Amino acid sequence: QVQLVESGGGLAQAGGSLRLSCAASGRTFSSYAMGWFRQAPGKEREFVAAISGSAGNIYYVDSVKGRFTISRDNAKNTVYLQMNSLKPEDTAVYYCATDRSSFRLRVGVYDYWGQGTQVTVSS
Prior knowledge:
The structure is a single chain. The protein has 123 residues and is mainly beta.
């Protein structure tokens, strides 16, 4: 049974930073791509970032490029999302997800996801 547990969300001021973590269990972590999605109130879930198992392929949605960084530690079975220069429009529930391919994550395909963690950015 694959489990993904996010942590690190909270309240930040505009221009501030937060780091999200997602701990995975249930299968060989390094063999799978990991990604982050987010869903703001009244909006559809959107792709944020993805990273392949070896970290050789990384994708971001245009709105976070240069501000967010996805990384992974395969020894700790954990993926991270470092969020800098936060904006109020980054406010959303952030979900960790996994799939066999980072490209599939980029186009919104995933086979498991976590329960989400709230990120709120005040202006």
